[in-house]
Amino acid sequence: MLDDITRDWAKVTAVEARNDCVFLSYLNPDGNDGDGQLIEICITQSDYAEAQQHTNDESEFIDFLLSRCRTTVDNSVNNNSANNYFTNLQNVRFVVDYSEVIRELQAAFSPKQRLFIDMDGTLARFHDEVQYLERMFEKDFFKNLKPFREACEAVSELVKSDKYEVYILSAAVDGEPPYCRAEKSVWICNNIPEIDIHHHAIFTKVGQPKASFIPGGIRSTDILLDDYTKNLLEWERDGGIGIKAKNNINCKGLYGEAWNGAVVDITTSPEQISLELDKLAQSLPGEYSQELSQDEGHSR
Length: 300
Hints:
Elements: H1 2-5, E1 13-18, E2 21-29, E3 36-43, H2 45-54, H3 58-66, E4 69-77, H4 79-87, E5 92-95, H5 98-109, E6 114-117, H6 132-135, H7 149-161, E7 165-172, H8 180-191, E8 201-205, E9 223-226, H9 229-237, E10 241-246, E11 262-265, H10 270-281
Parallel strand pairs: 6-7, 6-9, 7-8, 9-10, 10-11
Antiparallel strand pairs: 1-2, 1-5, 2-3, 3-4
Helix pairs in contact: 2-3, 7-10
């Protein structure tokens, strides 16, 4: 199997965890029959965190990391000698594209399971407002939305438990209103102050898959709690785990594609919501599930 993987080291990166760092090793060919330089990059936790803040783009993310601690192990190496070098590495994983490299770095530096939570319809009572689709363009609309208090308290407790890495993941309207993102940030500070809005609040664009805005992409263990079936289906197609937030609107079953995955009722007690989320996070996707129709209206 190793020979198959390492047949062309120009296309392979070795990822090795060592001494609280991650080392990326690869062959940088010079175009002469596969000969080239053997390159090693040492990435620390701070390098990784800085790259996360630098960009959402996978290619730029890797380029940023490659600009860090780059060392030339051997200036003249071919596939055979590279094969010998990589065979002797310990705790190594072999990957062939940017996404796989990023996933390995995430596993090394962010071992906690990540929980992404929608705002409108999940934490904020977006649909309770009269003519909400028209009024969402008014100043102070998002800032003054009433919370699903039980859900907000449950999220606060999950953050304080330090068991999960909790993010708010919500769409912000482009253009008008120009204050949407700022107002949502204020709302988070007022209702879930435990969330660090600078590092754990991610704002997406309306109509685009939420997974595409996660720095480095999503992991197979990443959970999205959302009241909108479309968002959940897209999330699962991108490789994550979806959990439906059952609110006071989307349980009516008026129309839309049915959601057959996991469900948490966000109108119950904070303790019950936390318990159900924790139970689902520790189980296989879909083990605790029930059918629920797609929501009424359009949440973000």
